[in-house]
Amino acid sequence: MSDVMPIGLLSRKTGVKIPTIRYYESVGLLRPPPRSEGNRRLYGPAAVDRLRFIRNARVTGLRLRDIAGILALRDSGQAPCGRVEALVAQLNHDIDSARRAVT
Questions:
Q1: What is the per-residue pLDDT across 20-67, written as a single tens digit (0 to 9) for each?
Q2: What is the pLDDT of residue 85?
Q3: Spatial CA neighbour of 73 closest among 63, 81, 62
Q4: Nearest to 24, CA basis, from 36, 44, 7, 9
Q5: Looking at domain 1-59, which of 3.90.79.10, 1.10.1660.10, 3.40.30.10, 3.40.50.1240 is its CATH number?
Q6: Residue 42 vs residue 69, higher pLDDT
Q7: 42 near 33, Cβ under 8 Å?
Q8: Contacts by residues 29-38 (CB-CB < 8 Å, ≥ 24 positions apart)
Q9: Of 30, 49, 32, 33, which is closest to residue 1 (Cα–Cα)?
Q10: pTM value?
């Protein structure tokens, strides 16, 4: 199994800190990975992709509950495009409103 990696390598590949990875597992954003005989978490390429998505979504300002909704749609086999578009439109509206309030 050469495509599996421990949590430290997953953290380096995704730019997500180890405690954050564990938190995402605890709240269900990231599926708990299989473990080695020594009880170490072993992540695969899907975890890398999912964490990168979560990290990028957080950078754009999406809340964890919104990200969870998008991932739930994706996990169910539905295309979350409409949901993502609505979230981004709302985020843009919130940003514009905040800018107007400041000026």
A1: 999 999 999 999 999 989 999 999 999 999 999 999 989 888 889 888
A2: 78
A3: 81
A4: 7
A5: 1.10.1660.10
A6: 42
A7: yes
A8: 29/54, 29/64, 29/67, 29/68, 29/71, 30/54
A9: 33
A10: 0.77
